[in-house]
Amino acid sequence: MAEEMQTTAGRERFSTRLGFILISAGCAIGLGNVWRFPYITGEYGGAAFVLLYLIFLVILGLPVMVMEFAVGRASQKSAAKAFDVLQPSRRWHWFGWWGFIGCLVLMMFYTTVGGWMLSYIVKLGVGEFDGLSAEAVGAAFSGSLADPVQQIGWMLVATFIGFFVVSMGVQKGVERITKWMMVFLLAIMVVLAVRSITLPGAEAGLEFYLLPDFGKLFADPSTFADALFAAMGQAFFTLSLGISAMEVFGSYIGKDNSLTGEAIRIVALDTFVAITAGLIIFPACFAFGVNPGEGPSLVFVTLPSVFNQMPLGQLWGALFFVFMSFAALSTIIAVFENLVSFAMDYWGWNRNKAVASIAILVTVLSIPCALGFNVWAGFTVPGIGDIQGIEDFIVSNNLLPLGSLLYVLFCVTKKGWGWDGFLAEADEGAGVKFPAWAHGWLKYGVPVLILAIWIGGYIPKLALWFGGM
């Protein structure tokens, strides 16, 4: 029955199909959609970049998501044991640790940035930025980064919320809380988007965002190459692929529906959020004469100054960061569940012991990022940046693309699970079937593209590191 919490093997289950879709989407919907996607889109010229991104989402992101779900559902285990179940030779045993380490490193900086989002709800709600210029908002943001007490305090708040939800279990905690968060997130986004596109002067922002200017994109080969790599990388970053963040949710569902159909729904929801985030940000930026290509500071410096200029800006600003916080927390909760499930499967711990142990580990490992903007601000790597930049580089430029490559090889080659096993699992149940003709593309085309993404991310850094030699 759909409402049963346990399988015969004692594994926790989602109570509803909607819960699986919303929670998986919640894992994918995060800062990659509402923070990274808008400013990258602004940097690379708007709608033309969006089209590139959507192409790579379909030909790269979607297949890998189906593979992660298939590994989880077929094995009924987290990444800790899944590869041993499907490939008993233990040749892939080590790959389970790839996901565990990847999720850990992701949370080492994600909890800090999630804390920023929560802090901004309070800052805008009490009117801390009222009447301030963009420069003054930027100074206030820099001041908060320089305060180690604030940084660690808000990181702890984000971490506590995440582990508190996970401690209640899959149904009563992760599923129930994330479903409500996702419903409110989507509702707030729609309200904010309507407000933004009805601002006087918003038409220019809509044109920038929705009408492709391929002439600008192709005018400079280096700009096009950068946009190409950014679009491919974003397809992995936004869906949290390659570190088994999605795999565990496959292990919590039954076989009533095909995995391709479920993945399409999740990718569509994820894309809706990313596109809607742009509908909130770009019309508002153009309406108030703000550069949409400001980079990471777009959300924390530029947008608060935009809200300052709106009627009821304090309300709209607070709502915007409620939505941003829900997006961040949905990912934090989902990844924490991955880490806890790994510990339960690998070491045989109960949920309480796993939550307590992983919470301590994540908290300790998150401290360097929180202190990387103040006490340890002098620690940098040329071409990569500060501690947060290093951790982001490890995940985004390495673990996500290479982990996705390994998932592809595991699912399509005889040295792994194999194509027949993957295809049978992906197609079981009602709904869209995975295209069998795509075997050649997945075996040869996708690995080449993923390696291109990985190498492309290193080219500018290698040029910087060795350019002076």
Describe this structure in words.
Helices cover 74% and strands 0% of the residues. It has 19 helices and no strands.
The dominant shape is: globular
Residue fraction in strands = under 5%
> What is the N-to-C order of secondary-structure elements (H for helix, E for strand)?
HHHHHHHHHHHHHHHHHHH
Cα radius of gyration in angstroms:
22 Å
Task: Give me the secondary-structure category.
Answer: mainly alpha
Helix amount: over 70%
Arithmetic mean pLDDT: 88
How far apart the termini lie comes to 66 Å
| Largest beta-sheet details | none
What is the topology?
Layout: H1 17-28, H2 31-43, H3 47-75, H4 79-86, H5 95-125, H6 134-145, H7 148-167, H8 170-197, H9 203-210, H10 214-218, H11 221-239, H12 247-250, H13 259-287, H14 297-308, H15 313-347, H16 351-371, H17 387-412, H18 419-427, H19 439-466
